Amino acid sequence: MENITKICCIGAGYVGGPTMAMIAKKCPHIQVTVVDLNEARIKAWNDEDVNNIPVYEPGLSDVVAEARGRNLFFSTEVDKAIDEAQMIFISVNTPTKTYGAGKGQAADLKWIELCARQIANISKDNKIIVEKSTLPVRTASAIKDILTHTGNGVQFQILSNPEFLAEGTAVEDLDAPDRVLIGGDNTPEGKVAVQALVDIYANWVPKERILTTNVWSSELSKLTANAFLAQRVSSINSLTEICEQTEADINEVAKAIGTDSRIGPKFLKASVGFGGSCFQKDILNLVYIARSYGLQEVADYWEQVIIMNDHQKRRFANQIIKNLYNTVNGKKIAFFGWAFKKDTNDTRESAAIYVADHLLNEQAHISVYDPKVPENQVYADLDYLNTREAEENKAGVQVITDPYEACKGSHAIAVLTEWDEFKGYDWQRIYDNMLKPAKIFDGRNLLDADKLRAIGFQVRSIGTNVLDK
Ligand code: NAI
């Protein structure tokens, strides 16, 4: 294939938007069109005020501002973009199935298949298809099956190019990735396609960081990477419970083990549990794949990572109840943070949702403050669980745009997201306006517990055994 000059990406979400913006920034000679069926999302990507783009990521609006209108375009004209592109990235959602066989575990590939069929219908010339979405190992063969039976003689090469960016640091990660992984067929045509994608990344990524493998290794590596990362979180979280019983301190333990170069210091922060759209979904997928090959022990091993994570969220909620004298009925609990981690407005699978759900079952009143998450998202997340009627969620939860207001008259504050701004608050002012004893449950070990205790708060930081000293 000739040099790539026109790319299209199907799916303008948390991955499609930022990755394509970065390619457009680094490759001004390539026209990049990101398409989506969701008109509101595309409208937001095209908003005159670049601060209103639908994905919040530090530095992203600058990248978009530089390239948008030059060689970066957002559009709902999916067919046109497919027709014109030489290379098509598929970056649509691949959530866990909520129905039928594999419900609750397998990835729902409905949207991937729709994309493949649409590409098959529209294409009139040869194209390279790039799986950007995270997919179960061997998905490329399903896509290939659809694309090779069009009967119109068009040739497709299918590559796997999983995305390793982390939300909250997407721009940094895309600008200087640890590695880029490209999987392709080991045929002459496959090698040409791989090289075409390598050439795009080589515009800014050092060659030694661009790894090429066969398609299946690439697909499986993405699931594996997320499984390993989530496993580290569940491992450290499992030890918080031991720390709380034994007067060991999880922060000290994490530091002590993290200095071992074989273990390393990253991803050892104890918390109320991991969230985000990927970790749980990808592990469940791995578990499903293992089970479908009859690998029961392998499946059980990875499933435990999810079991521990669910336990941690429930445990945190139960601690709040227990420490509020075994009832939160009618009590006001302020949530600091709703996003699944700091520096993102993404709330998918956020621990906050599950902790809130548990406390609402106990008739608590929750007031939520998050610097980036809008009110309608909080309600949508709770309604999605289907635990109670939407009106009941509205009655039990208030979303407040001022953190000081959110905790006025509250019995307790629960820190659910590690937003930096929480550390700089006027905690004396917060204390003065709360009911006493004023309690803080720090699910992220974010705040300086000693300072807060000096003010008068009773503080419980996860993985340390003290509520008040
Ligand atoms: P998302 O839900 O934010 O975006 C997906 C977009 O695709 C939506 O806007 C949806 O309207 C659009 N879409 C679905 N079907 C379509 C079709 N047929 N035509 C046009 N548009 C269509 O999802 P997100 O977070 O961007 O994830 C995409 C994939 O990337 C998933 O497979 C995910 O596992 C993977 N991934 C996500 C990461 C993350 O941090 N969010 C990181 C690495 C991989």
UniProtKB/TrEMBL annotation:
The keyword NAD applies. Pathway: Nucleotide-sugar biosynthesis; UDP-alpha-D-glucuronate biosynthesis; UDP-alpha-D-glucuronate from UDP-alpha-D-glucose: step 1/1. GO terms for molecular function: UDP-glucose 6-dehydrogenase activity. InterPro entries: 6-PGluconate_DH-like_C_sf (IPR008927), NAD(P)-bd_dom_sf (IPR036291), UDP-Glc/GDP-Man (IPR017476), UDP-Glc/GDP-Man_DH_C (IPR014027), UDP-Glc/GDP-Man_DH_C_sf (IPR036220), UDP-Glc/GDP-Man_DH_dimer (IPR014026), UDP-Glc/GDP-Man_DH_N (IPR001732), UDPglc_DH_euk (IPR028356). Residues 334-449 form the UDP-glucose/GDP-mannose dehydrogenase C-terminal domain. SUPFAM superfamilies: 6-phosphogluconate dehydrogenase C-terminal domain-like, NAD(P)-binding Rossmann-fold domains, UDP-glucose/GDP-mannose dehydrogenase C-terminal domain. Keywords: NAD, Oxidoreductase. The keyword Transit peptide does not apply. Pfam families: UDPG_MGDP_dh, UDPG_MGDP_dh_C, UDPG_MGDP_dh_N. It catalyses: UDP-alpha-D-glucose + 2 NAD(+) + H2O = UDP-alpha-D-glucuronate + 2 NADH + 3 H(+). Its EC number is 1.1.1.22. Gene3D superfamilies: Cytochrome c1, transmembrane anchor, C-terminal, NAD(P)-binding Rossmann-like Domain. Belongs to the UDP-glucose/GDP-mannose dehydrogenase family. NCBIfam families: NDP-sugDHase. This is UDP-glucose 6-dehydrogenase. It comes from Mucilaginibacter lappiensis.
